[in-house]
Amino acid sequence: MSREETWTLLPTLVVRSAGFPWETVLALAHPRAGEIAGEIARLERQARDLLADRPPGGHLPRGPLSRLRNLRPLPPRTPGPPGWIAAWNKITTRLEEVRAALPAAVEADSAAAGAALAAVTADERFLDALVTSAPAVYRDVCRGVQGRRMRRQLAAYVQRLCAKCETMSFFGPIDYGRVDPRAPSGYTWAGHRACAARVAYPAARVGEALQERILADPAVVAGLVPRRKTWTRPMRDAAGVLERCDGRRTVAEIAAAAGIEVSRACAVVVAGVRRGLLTHGLCPPATVPDPLGWLRERLPAHGGPVPEAAEIAGLLERYPQAPPAEKPAIQERVAELAGEARRPAGPGERGGPRFYNDRVIVHEAARGTLRVTAGGGLAADLAGRVPRVLDLLAEDAELTRWRTNRLLAARLGRGAFRLADALRAGAGLEIRHGDRLARRVAEILRGSPPGAVSVDLAAHAREPVPPAAPVLCSADVMVAAPALEAYEPGRTPLVLGDIHDAALLTPWALQFHPDAAALTAARDDAIERALTGFTALNVIARRGGGLPPLEFPGPVLELGGVAADPRRRRIGLDTLFVHSDGERAELRAHGLAGPLLFHNGELDTAVHTALALPRIRRPALPDLPYIPRLTWDNVVVSRRRWLIGRDRFDALGAAPGDSGRLVAMARLRAEHDLPGAFFASSPAERKPIYVDSRAPALLDGLVRLARTADRLTLTETLPGPEECWLRDGGLRFAAELRCVYLRPAAGAQGEERRWTC
């Protein structure tokens, strides 16, 4: 069976791109000062190497010894070998010259970088992005706050807007593409300033506040039609209300059937909703993109309660096109209507580089004008070469599931355990990750030259063990080429970015696509084919952030949230149990034949991993100080990576001024052979930051990041600006193709034979 037959690549691509060009963040660099700092670090290393080889000689006076320690030229008639002293003085004299040239270069470069940052903060588009994602920082800009801290904050947002492909508003637009092997690769685009659509949504907490308004009105509650969720079996209460909540009768009708006052029935229903036991006809499904719009469509049938909903909707309609200066007032009014008191800015709103949909009261989604065709050789490589890498990751995913499942079974012992009890028993259980790829990579690296830039795993091929359960995943792929038309199959790098454990062609991602319904149906058909012989259970959680939870084919467990598709079979938490023989654990449900597997959705717990479809992850790599770029032919599995301890950044943090930071960074680069630009990540932060080693404002962010963890992970910038195919005139933009891959289970094999570990 070929890779094209085992893996299905859905033909629809979600294209994610940066809303601002690389040139904006590159303008923060100090090019001449950075060059001088690099020369200082190089000369210092040469001088120290020469000092280490100093021939033995007589005792030197204090003055010459001090000059040696400080890497300064020696005075005439210093005792010692003339050749060595001449070489020393040549290096250290040049070192003094470049040190003397650094302040003027920093001053000139600082003026240019400062002007560039000032131009950014005067740009209406940047201010719009800032007020949408970081209202507190926007207010500081409007107040004219200056200083190093403000510079760092602004630089943090600039790097994110230019170097990342994040889906948020016009500065992270949603666009689409198609895989078509018969067509040439290319794209059409009206440019980065053109926006086909912008839509504003309230934070999830606004929807929760509106639900509280509904529950606070007894007249409205009396007309609601409640039904059970989380638990599907009839529940009993003293008033006999909960057992009658079947999704067919209003609360008033239930009260009549139970022979109690309507007010008492309302109180029981409200308590049940707040406890997560019940839902009702005015509670939006957690998985719909626009819960407020869904609610407003249904409010008139109930007499139009909750007038705040209409006002909030009006404010949201105005929001995308409102100038930045008006948006804080709209945000505050939405918060006021939601009952939020004016509060201090949270950690993600002030003082940090993080901005996400769950931290602002209003967030946006936008459609750009980009339309991409992945054709010819690019289509062939996406369908044929990328799956070779996915096979490696799927093997580790299956091994992770297998190992963790056995840990859970051993902890439970023999018997049948309610899922709620199994969750409690599995609390604190650690995921036991598959490590076949990591061990294989470590073995390959031991035979590679020290300091190698790239290692091709295909040259050390081993057929991976296919997974015994279906795999659903998405891969963010970056084409490292100056033009899509220049793509060379098998040669042009395809860089794997994030890899997700679910098919992220979702209603949210497709909200701007004209054929969204048909594409969602086609996705579901493909998922059902991949799941043949298996039943996968959706866990619908409450909507806690800006993006809705996932909902795929299969039954649903409404655990906090409500499913959008009423046709899906609902399975209650009270009917789910885990059967364990002490060695293997299976998720089952009373009344349902055969075992279940949870759908994934980046739920990183041991119990979920043990009982879910194989959760494909980024490759686990050996814990080594340096790992070269790992490829499979032209597919980049992992960029070059460095692990650097927190203490190695101490000198950078202690360095005085921009000159000191540039020199300290140049020394760090020389010590670890780092590239001039890289991404740095910390376990304590959700996203990496882009660092140009020549930009003091970005180095300030690196210093701050280094304080959050014992060590940082640094990765090369690939593709870099010069390798970005998305261009608007002379401006270059980061872009990635989100590809959805589905793989059915391999043929039946005994798992004990498949895994020997």
TrEMBL record:
Low complexity bias: start-end ranges: 54-72
UniProt region (Disordered), positions on chain: 52-79
Designated name of the protein: Lantibiotic dehydratase
